[in-house]
Write the structure tokens for this entry.
Amino acid sequence: MNRIYSLLIALALLVPGLAVAEWAEYPTDNMNSRTAQIQAKVESLYRRGDYKRAHFIYSKELAPLGDKYAQYMTGYMYLMGQGVEEDKIRASAWYRIAAERRTPEFLAVRDQLLRTMTKEQMNASDALYLELRRKFSDLVIVMGLIVDDLPHLDVRRTGSRLSGGTGSVTVLDPNTGASVSADHLRNRATRAVQARLDFVTDKLDIDEIQAQDVERQVDVLWERIHDYLGVIDDDMGAFVANPPN
């Protein structure tokens, strides 16, 4: 167990590299300046020993954005009893969701912890892991962003119109407050939705869907995601089959 904790503590110090790398191929705009500020704030709180506030920010503010490092740290603090009651099973479930993108560092600590668990503990971990998947998995977060962006695919109808006539309609950019053409805003939203759709359809292993066609398929996609996330698929069978004595 000391070896496990040594690896966990070492990983907890690798903040800058892991926190940034984890966003590299994740199709959201959540890694912005505000998110970076929150990450810096929570790391400062953690290093000062303000564990209760740090755990709240990791679990309630960053983990819901798909920040895998924050999801890992939520579990780490459960394992160590930092700011929360010590809970090995809950820690293991958070480690499993943090390892969703198969980042080697997160896979390593997940596997080392799970090898210490009994079959009964693994069953409890499975149940909590499924619960976390339905809230914090990449598929759920990305699909939620797709739904949020649907109104922006038709900004001529839903945008805040500033001018028009026979020329291009001008609307307010919801991100910056600046005036931009409706075509520019719609094209930007279409590219974002398409990138996220490609991510979702690739994960689900289904045919590609075009952004302009997604609105009528949203319910079907949510059903497919619900089915996909209801199955344990993170290669944990070996740990159940060979639990520790």
